[in-house]
Amino acid sequence: MKTNLKGVLFVVSGAISYGILATIVKYSNSLGMHTGVLVFMQYLVGVVVLSLIVKFKQKEEEVQNPTTSSKLKLVGYGTSVGLTSCLYYVSIQYVPVSVGIVLLMQSIWMGVVLEYIITKRPISYVKILAAMVTILGTVLASDVLFQKADISWTGIMWGLAAAAAYTLSLYASSNVEKGILSYVRSKYLIIGGLIAVVLFWNTSLIANFSSANIIFSGVILGLFGTILPPLLFTKGIPYIGLGLASILISIEIPVSIMSAQLILGEQVSLLQWLGVFTILFSVLMANLKIGAKYKEAVASRKLSNPTHSKS
User: Fold this and answer.
1) pTM of the prediction?
2) Dihedral class, residue 106 (left if φ above 0, else alpha if ψ from -120 to 50, else beta)
3) Which of 90, 166, 252, 293 could form a disulfide with 84 if both were Cys (CB 3.0 to 4.6 A apart)?
4) Residues 198-209: pLDDT tens digits?
């Protein structure tokens, strides 16, 4: 029980870390800091710290270096991680953080589509239902039906593009080069992310690097965006499994909205909160259903093979 609780705390802490990023960026923007430089600093700090961790671990224990092919593959997929941050941070320049995080979470149904494209296996009814509930929750949470002010379709398009990149980055994090140690994989994925950030913002990085405070903000973003979450998830997920981890990671949504309310003063209606909890329910529904089916299958195997039970 203590081990499971430890795993839950690790995963929840990682989700909280991700949840506060958009608020930090938007608050830093209000102080005159450029979004591109902020995200560049976030990934630069991540690369430096993760490289130091890998070097330290290599001295402590025998850590085999990945092949050149594996490194290039991870760096290539890592560009989707950097693009996610760039596109997401641009989207919240046009829409509130509460809407931006909901748009980013469209990765829930996009992941279902990507899984079908890659595996060619039929999508389960549970996943289809969860995707439909997610879309319903998005309509409520984004307040598009009752929004009095003009909706920024530019912000929505940036947000959906961020969700597509996030879907690819989640696939990369869980499927690409799984035989390599997680913190080594994280290092090369973040290097790929840094390359994407430089290509995305290019010369504006030099033109807007004008404030010493941006270094401090970049370190905070690097800590909560590219260092802590991968390490915390790597620690926690083995204890509790991917199903429960997926549910806990979705805590990122209310954390992001609450931090925007408290620090940025963004207003979120009860209807929007209803939409948020509808999205959380869709994640819960899909994962618990899968977990229940797995337990039923295990139980039926034990009944049909009584010799496997304890004597």
Assistant:
1) 0.78
2) alpha
3) 166
4) 999 988 888 777
